[in-house]
Structure formats: structure tokens, C-alpha cells
Amino acid sequence: MIDESIRPRLGIIGGLGPLASADFYFKLTRMTEALRDNEHVPSVILSVPQLPDRTEAIIAGHDGPLAPLQAAVSTLNALEVACIAMPCNTAHHWYGQLAANSRAEIIHIGDAVVAEIRRNLNRGCVANLATRGTLVSGFYQDRISAAGFDLCLPANAEFQERVDNAIALVKAGSIADAATETERALHLAQLAGADATLLGCTELSVVAASLNDTNGLIVIDSNAALARACLTRLGYGVQEARGLPTVSRLPEQDRLPWQRAS
């Protein structure tokens, strides 16, 4: 039995991937209206990077990740958390099965994102930068359309290639290169008519604060949206706070030349 003095209110299924869950917790902390430690959300992160690849499972048509995801949910329920967050968009393919067997509410990242889109856009076309697994799952298409927004699906094959590259680069720790690939995908989405774009993979959320060139395009960060939804559901005040930039990417003309010490 857990000591009541340390009981968490929020359970986080992390490690999918690790940088994405670290980014989520950072944004959860930065977005909390708090002046001291004990005003933040008591939380526990269960990091499970050993889970099978979610996109591979969806594309192949099997449920390999489901059992370990259910075990993670069960573990967090045993701690009697009030809510569970999964900072992994693709894992929400199995949301129905997970939520059906969870005492704690599992906050759906798709619902959080739609609320964030409504905060930023009255009408228009939204492009989703997501894994191929999330796109096949279709839960974003369903929710965004039901909310009255149009979907922008760039026909240029380069768009998804750039998205895939950016996700892989974040997983490998190459954040600056991932930001560059993400910017290129955003540009292609805008050319295809997007009014807003969704960073619909939490790996891409990692580079959100490092994006320099978005040309006025509205960019929705799924990790930030999920953090806002968790704080609201648990009754915490929310403040606007972008994530800490992970890399400094000054334009070439603004960079000082390196000099050897004399």
C-alpha cells in the first residue's frame, strides 16, 4: 500500500519515446500555475521504452503493444491515480481497450488537441504531422472533422518523408536536424493549403520550441495540449509557457565567428 503522503494524482505512461515523455513532463511543469514545489501535480512516470513499436503493429495489423500497455495502465491504477496520460499519439490506437479496463480516467490526446485547435482557430484546414500508424488509425481525422475543421492532406510524398525523418532524428537525439526536417514539412503543408498544422507525434513536440521558420502558420503541439488537458481535469491553473528550446539555431548572419584564444 502506498503512503498517502506521496500518492500521485497523475500517472504518465512514458518512454514512447523517452524524449517525448521528458518533454511532456517539462511542459506539464512549465504550464502549471505554481509558485512553490508543493503547488505542482503529484505525478508518477512509468517509463516503458521496451514496448513493441506502435506504428509497426498498426501497419501489420496486430495488437502486440496492447498487453504491455494494459499492464502499464493496471500498474498506475494500483497506485490509485486520478488520471492517466499517454504522451504518445500512436498508442491511442488502443485507447478504447485501455480505457474500458481502467478505473482512472485516461485523457485522450486527440480530444486535448481538438480543444487546442479550437483555442487557436475558428475555421480552416488542419494538416497532421504524424506517424504512419497514427494516420492509419484515423482517430485524428475523425475528431478534427467532427469538430468542424477541414483536413489538409498534402499529396506530395515528400511531406510524409520529412515527417518520418524528423521523428527518427528525435529518437536518435539529433534535435537540430529534426527541427529542420519539421520546418520543411510545415512549409509543404502550407503550400498545400493548411491554415494550421498539428505536431501529431510527441517526438515532434520535442522540437516545437526550436522551430524558427513557420511563416505565420499556426502550430499545435500535442504534448502541450495534453499537458493543458491534464492540468484542467485535475483542477490546476494553467499558464502559457513554451518549452525550453533544446537547441540554439541563430541565422547565419547573426552568429559570431569562432576565434581561438590567443
Secondary-structure blueprint:
Blueprint: E1 10-14, H1 18-31, E2 43-47, H2 54-60, H3 66-78, E3 83-85, H4 95-100, E4 105-107, H5 109-120, E5 125-129, H6 132-137, H7 139-146, E6 150-152, H8 157-171, H9 175-191, E7 196-199, H10 202-205, E8 218-221, H11 222-233
Parallel strand pairs: 1-2, 1-3, 3-4, 5-6, 5-7, 7-8
Helix pairs in contact: 1-11, 5-11, 8-9
Model description:
- The chain is an alpha/beta fold.
- Mean pLDDT is 93; it is low at 258-262.
- The strands form two sheets. A four-stranded parallel beta sheet has the order 2-1-3-4, sandwiched between helices. Strands 6-5-7-8 form a four-stranded parallel beta sheet, sandwiched between helices.
- The longest helix has 17 residues, at 175-191.
- It contains eleven helices and eight strands.
- It is globular and about 55 Å long.
- The chain has helices at residues 18-31, 54-60, 66-78, 95-100, 109-120, 132-137, 139-146, 157-171, 175-191, 202-205, 222-233; strands at residues 10-14, 43-47, 83-85, 105-107, 125-129, 150-152, 196-199, 218-221.
- It is 44% helix and 12% strand.
- Helix 1 crosses helix 11, helix 5 packs across helix 11 and helix 8 runs antiparallel to helix 9.
